[in-house]
């Protein structure tokens, strides 16, 4: 390295030192002196580089502090509004006030999760800074049942091989865990022992038994996650339930536990996504959710996307799976990024964002085939009969589609070839008859009428609607994806909105785990407890061993 490359240092002492090195280098110096000069140059260069890194970290820290202050100030305002609303709770508009209280409680909770998720990403943040934002740890009541777990020290001294020890003390800590219908505090004891031969101290390794530096066991953490994302019970309500059992846990503490769990769960969620996109047939759909926008009290519309793989209707031995993604909008680039590695048939509705992904005359090199949904088509004609029960055309169409579904029910569970044969024998003529009827009657209808629009929807998707006839692995509709979105639809009514884009992504990961466990017949709480207690000690090459269909969950 030339001296001019590091002369950018503004430090006067560095400049003088470099000048001295340059003078020594030009003089007739010994080899040892030359080597010393090289080492000194490298040290000055490293010092400059460290200074540059320090400036970058200072900028990142300042940005993080601004965001932390924004969220903290916003929560302070929300808490003040909450206090005012609570004072009015029993007035004339108590129902309306109660709804506002629940909404404010949820906003505060989601802001705290957002803050905790950002905190987890700040790997360089000091322990002291983190502790400023954490609630003071409270001691567990002595009334709670205790279970003492002794982690025995090694039987042999690692220094001399001696086998006789004397006990000199214990390291103890407590975590709160849950057993269905009761809470228990587990007290862990690690005896400290010294070898009688050489005085070497020995002690058992600290096992992974709960939230890092926290007081929640994995059973309790799994229970909190399932209640929030499967039972749709906000954290502040869970805190109230715990309080009834004499256990006081600050909501901010519980928020930290949720963020901790979400971080580890993401690894399994990504593995499930990889599996789904290796399948040859999948289902896709999306639904809107409300998301808190930067600033006070405003919400925007985000999207939750779902992709499901379920081959059970055609007797596939591959385990079913479902995964979710979050995005802040519904742009076509979202499904494009999700499906970048997928090759096969996608069951979906007629969303325009998928069109550029399908193989067609316009995109002959694309590797995704479209399978349209007969349930969507049926729904458009059914809505006509709601407005006019005597609508002849709509009723006739529903009757034919009903016959198609009756055949599907009869061939459910058969292998793909038998399904294809039965469809060719019985379903193909019905479908052809239906589309011939559409083409015949459409010119006679008012083109902007509801019946004409329903027929045009079917005709625009004719090729994709007929695709199930030629392949026994393809389903008649996209109901697998719609079923997978029910959890989101139910949750919307309870938790109202996600706290941020980060909160939306964390929710998508947790839903992926819970819903895939359920579709495989597992208790999601037991499965979450299993993976949370094991994943931290797993080699990344063996993560697949923790997928729902590869493990037997611990139901204790």
Give a verbal description of the structure.
It is built from 18 helices and ten strands. It folds into four domains: 3-53; 138-212, no CATH class; 265-372 and 478-556, no CATH class; 374-472. It is 51% helix and 14% strand. By secondary structure, the chain is an alpha/beta fold. The two termini are 63 Å apart. Residues 1-10, 90-94 and 123-134 have low confidence and may be disordered.
Which class of secondary structure composition applies to the elements?
A: alpha/beta
> Outline, from the CA principal axes?
globular
- How much is the radius of gyration in Å? 32 Å
- Average the pLDDT over all residues and give the rounded result: 85
Domain unit count? 4
Please work out how many helical segments DSSP would assign: 18
Largest sheet at a glance? 6 strands, mixed
**Stretches where pLDDT falls below 50 for ≥5 residues?**
1-10, 90-94, 123-134
The percentage of residues in β strands lies in 5-15%
Number of strands: 10
Q: Strand-and-helix sequence, N→C?
A: HHHHEEEEHHHEEEHEHEHHHHHHHEHH
Helix content: 40-55%
Roughly how many Å apart are the termini?
63 Å
């Amino acid at each position: 390295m030339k001296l001019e490359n590091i002369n950018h240092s503004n430090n006067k002492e560095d400049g003088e030192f470099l000048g001295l090195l340059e003078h020594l280098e030009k003089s007739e110096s010994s080899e040892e002196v030359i080597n010393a000069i090289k080492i000194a140059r490298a040290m000055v260069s490293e010092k400059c580089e460290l200074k540059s890194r320090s400036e970058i970290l200072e900028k990142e820290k300042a940005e993080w502090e601004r965001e932390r202050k924004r969220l903290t100030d916003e929560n302070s305002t929300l808490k003040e509004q909450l206090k005012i609303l609570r004072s009015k709770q029993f007035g004339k508009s108590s129902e309306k006030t109660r709804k506002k209280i629940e909404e404010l409680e949820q906003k505060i909770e989601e802001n705290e999760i957002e803050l905790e998720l950002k905190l987890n990403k700040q790997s360089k943040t000091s322990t002291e800074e983190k502790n400023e934002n954490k609630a003071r740890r409270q001691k567990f009541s002595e009334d709670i049942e205790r279970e003492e777990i002794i982690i025995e020290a090694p039987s042999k001294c690692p220094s001399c091989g001696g086998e006789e020890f004397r006990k000199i003390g214990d390291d103890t800590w407590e975590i709160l865990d849950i057993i269905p219908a009761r809470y228990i505090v587990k007290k862990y004891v690690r005896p400290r022992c010294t070898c009688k031969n050489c005085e070497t101290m020995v002690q058992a390794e600290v096992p992974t038994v709960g939230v890092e530096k926290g007081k929640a066991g994995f059973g309790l953490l799994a229970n909190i996650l399932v209640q929030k994302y499967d039972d749709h019970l906000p954290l502040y309500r869970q805190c109230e339930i715990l309080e009834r059992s004499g256990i006081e846990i600050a909501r901010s503490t519980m928020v930290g536990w949720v963020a901790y769990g979400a971080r580890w769960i993401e690894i399994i969620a990504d593995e499930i996504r990889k599996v789904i996109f290796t399948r040859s047939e999948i289902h896709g759909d999306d639904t809107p959710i409300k998301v808190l926008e930067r600033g006070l009290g405003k919400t925007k519309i985000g999207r939750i996307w779902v992709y499901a793989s379920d081959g059970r209707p055609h007797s596939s031995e591959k385990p079913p799976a479902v995964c979710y993604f979050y995005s802040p909008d519904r742009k076509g680039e979202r499904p494009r990024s999700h499906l970048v590695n997928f090759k096969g048939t996608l069951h979906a509705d007629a969303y325009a964002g998928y069109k550029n992904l399908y193989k067609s005359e316009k995109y002959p090199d694309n590797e995704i085939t479209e399978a349209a949904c007969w349930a969507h088509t049926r729904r458009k004609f059914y809505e006509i009969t709601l407005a006019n029960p005597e609508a002849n055309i709509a009723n006739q169409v529903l009757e034919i589609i009903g016959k198609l579904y009756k055949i599907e029910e009869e061939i459910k569970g058969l292998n793909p070839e038998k399904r294809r044969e039965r469809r060719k024998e019985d379903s193909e003529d019905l479908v052809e008859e239906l589309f011939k009827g559409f083409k015949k009657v459409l010119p006679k209808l008012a083109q902007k009428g509801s019946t004409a629009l329903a027929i045009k929807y079917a005709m625009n998707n004719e090729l994709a609607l007929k695709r199930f006839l030629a392949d026994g692995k393809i389903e008649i509709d996209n109901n697998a994806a719609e079923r997978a979105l029910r959890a989101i639809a139910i949750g919307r009514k309870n938790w109202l909105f996600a706290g941020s884009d980060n909160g939306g992504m964390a929710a998508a990961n947790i839903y992926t785990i819970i819903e895939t466990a359920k579709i495989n017949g597992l208790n999601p709480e037991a499965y979450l407890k299993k993976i949370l207690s094991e994943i931290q000690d797993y080699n990344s090459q063996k993560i697949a061993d923790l997928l729902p269909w590869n493990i037997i969950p611990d139901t204790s």
